[in-house]
Write a structure and sequence with these properties.
The protein is of the alpha/beta class. It has helices spanning 15-35, 37-49, 85-101, 134-137, 143-160, 199-218, 234-247, 286-293, 295-300, 341-346, and strands at 57-64, 70-76, 117-122, 166-174, 223-228, 254-257, 263-268, 271-276, 303-308, 316-319, 328-332, 354-361, 365-373. It is built from 10 helices and 13 strands. It has a 6-stranded mixed β-sheet. Helix 1 crosses helix 2 (37-49). The longest helix has 21 residues, at 15-35.
C-alpha cells in the first residue's frame, strides 16, 4: 500500500467508490442549499440557465464574490470519463484527421493558356475602423465605406486589366488595413484614434473583405498574397494575414506570405518587386537594401521597383547607379481612405483617393499603371 510523505499508509479508492463519495457530497450540498431557500433558488436558477439536470450533478462548490454574488463550480456525470488512454488517443487522432481533411470550397481558377503578365493589386492604407464625419472633416469615412471602396477599386483594376493575358496576381495585403491595434482604440504605439465600431468588428470585416477579394481574383489567375507589417496594426494585421493563410490552406492556387519581415520581395521572371509599409528605412537607402537583402534576385532581374505606402499620396523617385544601368523605382501608393479629424486639422487632406494596380510583363517590366479613383 502506498505511503504519504509522513510514512502513513494511503488508501486508494476504486472508481466506483469515488463516484459514491461524490454523489453523497452532492446530496449534502443539495440538502444544505434546500435549508437556505434564497441560496437554493439561486443554485437552481444557475442550473436551469445552463440546462443542467440537478440529478446529473456529481459535486458542487459554492462561494460568494467580493460583491456578495453567488458563484458555483459544478461537476456533472457528463464531465467524467471512463475512457482508456487508447480510446483518448483514438479520439484525438480522429479530431486531427477531421481538421486536416476539412477544406473550404474556393472558386476554381479557369484553365487557360499560360499568360505573360503579372497583375498587381495594391489597396493601400485602407484603415478599416477609421471614422471621419463630414461636418468636421469635410468628408465621410467609416467601415462600410472602406469595404465598398476596396471591392469597387479591385473590380475597377480588374476591368482595366482586361485584354492582358494574366499569368499570376500579386495581392498586396497589410499596410494599415486596420485602423487600431488594441481594445482601447489606439494604434500599435497606443496613439488614440477616432474609431467606427469595435476593434473586433473591424477585424472580422477586414477578413471578409480579403476573402472576397481573393475569391474575385481566383477567377482570373492564381493569387500570391504578400503581407506588409505596418504602424497602425502591427500585431492585428499580422494576425489577420495568418487568418487569411488559414482560410486558403490547401488551396493550390493561393499562397500567403504572412511573415513579419519589414521588407518583402517578389520575383516575376525579370522583375524584382519590393514591398514595405514606408515608415521604416530611408528612401535613399532602399536601392542598396534591396541589393543586400536579396542579392540573387537583384542579379537575376533587370526591372526593379519598391512600392511604399504610409503617406497616402503619390511620390515617385528614380535611382540610377550610372547612366547606362537599370535603376530602381521607388513609388508611394495612394490610399482609398478619408481624412479623419487629426489629419483634417493638420491639413493632410485633398490627395486623390484611389486603389492602384500594375501590370508587369515577364521580360519588358512594367507595361501599365492602373488607377481606380473615387469621386467624393
Amino acid at each position: 500500500m502506498p505511503r504519504d510523505k509522513h510514512g502513513h499508509q494511503r488508501m486508494r479508492l476504486k472508481p466506483q467508490e469515488i463516484d459514491t463519495i461524490r454523489e453523497m457530497r452532492a446530496q449534502d450540498m443539495a440538502l444544505n442549499l434546500s435549508e437556505n431557500n434564497q441560496m437554493s433558488n439561486v443554485y437552481l436558477d444557475y442550473l436551469k440557465e445552463r440546462s443542467i439536470d440537478p440529478d446529473d450533478v456529481v459535486s458542487v462548490k459554492h462561494w460568494q464574490s467580493a460583491s456578495g454574488e453567488a458563484r458555483f463550480s459544478i461537476v456533472t456525470k457528463n464531465d467524467r470519463t471512463d475512457m482508456t488512454s487508447e480510446d483518448r488517443e483514438f479520439l484525438i487522432q480522429s479530431i486531427e484527421e477531421t481538421i486536416n481533411n476539412h477544406k473550404i470550397q474556393h472558386p476554381k481558377t479557369p484553365k487557360k493558356d499560360l499568360g505573360n503578365h503579372l497583375l498587381i493589386i495594391n489597396p493601400a492604407d485602407v484603415h478599416i475602423g477609421k471614422l471621419a464625419i463630414a461636418e468636421q472633416t469635410g468628408e465621410e469615412y467609416n467601415r462600410d465605406l472602406a469595404k465598398q471602396r476596396v471591392l469597387e477599386g479591385v473590380q475597377g483594376i480588374i476591368d482595366r486589366a482586361k485584354g492582358y493575358n494574366v499569368e499570376r496576381i500579386l495581392f498586396c495585403i497589410g499596410n494599415d488595413i486596420l485602423h487600431v491595434d488594441n481594445t482601447i482604440g489606439g494604434t500599435t504605439r497606443n496613439t488614440p484614434q477616432d474609431q467606427d465600431g469595435m476593434w473586433w468588428q473591424s477585424f472580422e470585416l477586414a477578413l471578409e473583405v480579403y476573402v472576397a477579394v481573393v475569391d474575385m481574383l481566383l477567377q482570373i489567375a492564381p493569387v500570391d498574397c504578400v503581407h506588409s507589417m505596418s504602424n497602425h496594426d502591427y500585431m492585428s494585421g499580422y494576425h489577420l494575414a495568418h487568418c487569411l493563410k488559414s482560410w486558403y490552406r490547401g488551396c493550390e492556387n493561393v499562397t500567403v506570405d504572412a511573415s513579419p519581415s519589414f521588407r518583402k520581395y517578389y520575383k516575376f521572371y525579370d522583375n524584382m518587386i519590393g514591398l514595405e509599409h514606408g515608415d521604416g528605412a530611408k528612401q535613399a537607402d532602399i536601392p542598396l537594401l534591396m541589393a543586400q537583402e536579396e542579392p540573387q534576385m537583384w542579379a537575376e532581374c533587370r526591372h526593379r521597383v519598391m512600392f511604399l505606402h504610409h503617406l497616402h499620396h503619390k511620390i515617385k523617385l528614380k535611382f540610377q547607379s550610372a547612366k547606362d544601368y537599370i535603376g530602381v523605382t521607388v513609388e508611394y501608393m495612394r490610399s482609398p481612405s478619408g481624412a479623419d479629424a487629426w489629419h483634417a486639422k493638420k491639413g493632410y487632406k485633398g490627395s486623390p483617393k484611389a486603389v492602384e494596380g500594375f501590370l508587369f510583363h515577364r521580360t519588358n517590366g512594367r507595361v501599365a499603371s492602373l488607377i481606380h479613383n473615387f469621386n467624393e
